[in-house]
Amino acid sequence: MSRLVVISNRVAIPDEQGHPAPGGLAVAVHASLQDRAGLWFGWSGQVAEAPAAPATLDDGRLCYVLTDVRPQDFQEYYNGFANRVLWPILHYRVDLAEFKEADLKGYLRVNEFFAERLGPLIAEDDILWVHDYHLIPLAVALRARGHGNRIGFFLHIPMPPPELLATLPHHREVLGALSEYNLIGLQTAGDVSNLGRYLTQVLGASSSDGEHYHLGSQHFRLGAFPVGIDAEGFRKLAEQTADGALAEALGSSLEGRALLVGVDRLDYSKGIGNRLEGYERFLELHPEWHGRVSYLQIAPSSRSDIPEYIEIDAAVSAKVGHINGRFGTASWVPLRYVNRNHSREDIASIMRLARIGLVTPLRDGMNLVAKEYVAAQNPADPGVLILSQFAGAAAELDAALIVNPHDRDALAEALVRALQMPLAERCARHQASYEVLLANPIGSWGTNFIEALMPAEVGLV
User: Fold this and answer.
1) Dihedral angle at the C-alpha atoms of 194, 200, 205, 206, nearest 10 degrees?
2) SS3 for 429?
3) Is 73's pLDDT higher than 60?
4) Predicted TM-score (pTM) of this structure
5) Cβ–Cβ under 8 Å, residues 360 and 267
6) What would the DSSP string read from start to end of 113-143?
């Protein structure tokens, strides 16, 4: 029986209670591994001039293997090519990409280093599952070392059209490496179409069905595998925390006002600045809502040593101060901004209280926060999800109020519509969205991908 080997940039080791680390990739991958024998390999998060042998943590059926990287590798592979070139281009922000030849060399070098350290751990019949943009060339490095295993790749972030992909320096070398995988999974049908067009129009691949591709001697498959959540589990968590200390304190501080909430990592792709402009426009056009709403934006910092992230932190803080200074009164602060992480319990509790969930990224692979907001609601009196048309989740959650995050007037009017929406309509929209969540639970994502990757005669322990 085959073992499942997961490889990602970071390894999400569960806490003492067995809960996975926060983050879409961590939660989704952990759910796929928890009932299977397997190994999860990746970077430890630490740097060392001479990385020691990988550290191993055995959790019964699952073994975690972590390796340090050198400081130069971290700078060039992670801060450099992965997050200052691939991340912006794959999020349609070519203007923010800053390419350096040394960073590309570091990116390829770390993928070789991962393959070198992973190789001795791989059995001949293992099934390998590589995750995200950090490790696109990993299959090339593994194949060069003689590993003929079935290898799948899943991209958790968007896949832009070929015209944007071709702006990536050395794109044929980097993206062409995907042909070494047996299966490439993406979040939406649109992402699959974009990559398929790049493969055929730019790289010269052939396909008769838009699913199976041939490029030179390589034969591989593309597929859409939208990530879901544990809707029932998150609903129960929100119910259990509804009477907790945080819910009581937050509810008391609202003094009857309707709560609007945004929960995002502080990243330019999340559209927080555009969202704040839409909220400001709402306050401009609808003074009748002054003192009757309270917007809580939770946005923990990330990648704080990268210039673009320092800039967005400063810009969001300045905009928050501007809005509060312009519209706030001695008895009402229209916007609360929290720049730190919260536990899943706290987030579930806050979402349950919120009359409106604002999920308006400029571009997102899926966005599980949108799904969690739906799951957290009281079905007898649910809130309303306002969702960007550019989030992958919009392809599934079409019962939400879908908006263009670049249109601040449209966002302002969506806020009014959500605040005035009758209970019957709120319930109907919530029920439709919740049924979508139940139809695509988080466990199905991993199962569907692995089944598509494996030959029919191969099983997993």
Assistant:
1) 100
2) helix
3) yes
4) 0.94
5) no
6) HHHHHHGGG--TT-EEEEESGGGTTHHHHHH
Residue entry with tokens 């030849």: 101
Q: What is the pLDDT of residues 312-326, one digit of tens each?
A: 989 999 999 999 999
**Helices 344-353/231-240 angle, 10° precision:** 80
- Find the mean pLDDT for residues 189-212: 97
Dig out the tokens for 277 from the structure.
């402009």
Q: How far apart are CA 263 and CA 126, in angstroms?
A: 38
- Residue 13: strand, helix, or coil: coil
Residue 153 Cα distances to 2, 33, 128, 140, angstroms: 18, 16, 9, 12
Domains and CATH numbers, the chain: 4-228+442-453 (3.40.50.2000), 231-439 (3.40.50.2000)
- Give the model's confidence band at 456: pLDDT under 50 very low, under 70 low, under 90 confident, else very high: low
Return the pLDDT at 457. 44
Integer Cα distance of 142 and 139 in angstroms: 5
3-class DSSP assignment, residue 105: helix
Q: What is the mean pLDDT of residues 45-63?
A: 91
Beta bridge partners of residue 128, listed in sequence order? 5, 151
Number of C-alpha atoms within 13 angstroms, CB side, residue 119?
18
Q: Report yes or no: 366 and 226 within 8 Å, Cβ to Cβ.
A: yes
Q: Does residue 430 have an active-site annotation?
A: no
Transcribe 275-315 into DSSP letters.
HHHHHHHHHHH-GGGTTTEEEEEE----STTSHHHHHHHHH
Q: How far apart are CA 410 and CA 277, in angstroms?
A: 11
pLDDT by residue (tens digit) across 182-197?
999 999 999 999 999 9
Measure CA of the first residue to CA of the last residue in the chain; give whole Å: 6
Of 156, 264, 267, 430, the catalytic one is: 156
Please state the rounded mean pLDDT for residues 113-118.
Answer: 98
Write down the pLDDT at residue 32.
73
Residue 12: the pLDDT is 82
- CA 376, CA 354: separation in Å to the nearest integer? 9
364 is catalytic: yes
Q: What is the mean pLDDT of residues 352-357?
A: 98
Number of neighbouring beta carbons within 10 Å of residue 167 = 12
Return d(Cα 295, Cα 8) in angstroms, integer: 35
Q: Where are the alpha helices (DSSP H) in 328-367?
A: 344-353
Catalytic residue among 103, 131, 364, 430: 364
Supply 134's token pair. Answer: 């950090």
The CA distance from 458 to 367, in Å, is 32
* CA pair distance 299, 296, nearest whole angstrom: 10
